[in-house]
Amino acid sequence: MHVAFFVLLCSSLTRYLMVHPGAPSTPWVVVLAVVLALLYILGPVLGPRRSAASGTLTAAPAFWLTAVIGTWITLVVLAPSFGWCAVPLFYTGLRSLRTKPAVILVALLTAAVVGAQVKLRLRYGFDPNLLFAPPAGAAVATAMFLYSQRQADRLRTVITDLVRTRRELAATERREGTLAERQRLSMEIHDTVAQGLSSQQMLLQAADRLWDSDPVLARRHVRTAASIAEHNLTEARRFVRDLAPADLADGTGLDEALRTLADRETSDSLHVRFHQDGTPTTPLPERVQSALLRIAQGALANIREHADATAAALTLTYLDDQVVLDIADDGRGFTPTDRPGGVRGHGLPAMRARLQQLGGTLAIESTPGEGTVLSAAVPLPT
After folding, report:
1. CA nearest 54: which of 157, 162, 149, 150?
2. What are the DSSP calls for 206-224, one per residue?
3. Which of 69, 74, 273, 367 has the most CB atoms at less than 10 Å from its CB?
4. How far apart are CA 312 and CA 266, in angstroms?
5. How far apart are the first and last CA of the chain?
6. Residues 6+ apart with CB under 8 A from 115
7. Secondary structure class of 342 (helix, strand, coil)
8. Hey, is 128 helix, strand or coil?
9. How far, in Å, CA of 319 to CA of 301, rounded?
10. 202 exposed, middle or buried (CB, 10 Å; 0-12, 13-18, 19+)?
């Protein structure tokens, strides 16, 4: 539109100089044409500006728009051929004013164009096109601009809504991530520090009861509690450093970690053994290894604290599409309920939550007096 304005301005000036050489008004026409060009060039400085906050155009200073329109009308009076510059000026007015004042301005500019063309062509006879063609062109130009402006406003509203929605989604994801991290930390603490402290408490209480009657066994309980405390200290330091199980540090595989766990949890009152079926075709993800090891730790802590069992078994089975960890004991058993997590407490719900995060499942089979089997299954990545 800017290029069209200057092309029309130059062509109108050229036509005037060619048709009216040496006319008395020529200097004024040239000066006014230059002034109009300068005013139009100064439009980005003196004219309408786009607001950075709302994206809308602010109103142009009144003196700039008045100077542009006044200079053009004076030119049209002196040289009617400058009326062709009205079309770019239509858009200048439409961009600078609100809808109603802009439409009124377009009507006034159209009237000036019609008057100029009638004056220019009157000597050739009356032509109806001179009365109807400029208003029709102005109406089309105005309708196109207003429609485009309306569409732009709608698009700007949609973009604003999308940006706001994206910010809200980001805030929601941050909140959900924070809650998920809190839940994960609570499960990590429950499966490491809390379970270790519970085992130490039971061993120390047993040692206290046996200290006079069987000091050898009491000291063995104390040594076992000290070993658990040492391992818990390692777990705690590792937990603070990177929240990964200490048994999986230095590239130790899940099978070796479970075997080490079984050996560590074996005592005079509880014998724990480990068995592996199959071999993994691909290395298990660290998240899967960590989750299964934590589940085994929590299950053995529950067996020691609640089951009154003498034997337990960890069985790690690699199938084609999943890996399954079974923890079985010969303890007192219980009756699983329909509640999420199966029973009261935090152990089983935490196990189930870990598996759900990996797309896995937890199955509980138990009968009072006949022991318990926990089966944790995690799908393997394809």
Report:
1. 157
2. HHHHHTTT-HHHHHHHHHH
3. 69
4. 9
5. 58
6. none
7. coil
8. coil
9. 27
10. middle
For residue 133 the two structure tokens come to 């063609």
% of the chain with per-residue pLDDT over 70 = 83
Q: What does the pLDDT look like over 134-183, one tens digit per residue?
A: 777 778 878 888 888 888 889 999 999 999 988 888 778 778 766 776 77
Cα 197 to its chain centre, rounded Å, is: 40
Beta bridge partners of 329: 312, 372
Could you tell me which of 266, 188, 187 has the C-alpha nearest to residue 227? 266
Helices 26-41 and 62-78 pack at an angle, to 10 degrees, of 150
Residue of 307, 309, 299, 320 lying closest to 362 (CA atoms): 299
CA Rg value for the chain: 43
pLDDT at 341: 43
Q: Going by DSSP bridges, is the β-strand pair 322-329/361-366 parallel, antiparallel, or unpaired?
A: unpaired
Q: Token pair of 132, please?
A: 């109807």
3-state secondary structure of 308: coil
Tell me the torsion sign for CA atoms 347, 353, 357, 361. positive
**Longest C-alpha distance within the chain, in Å?**
135
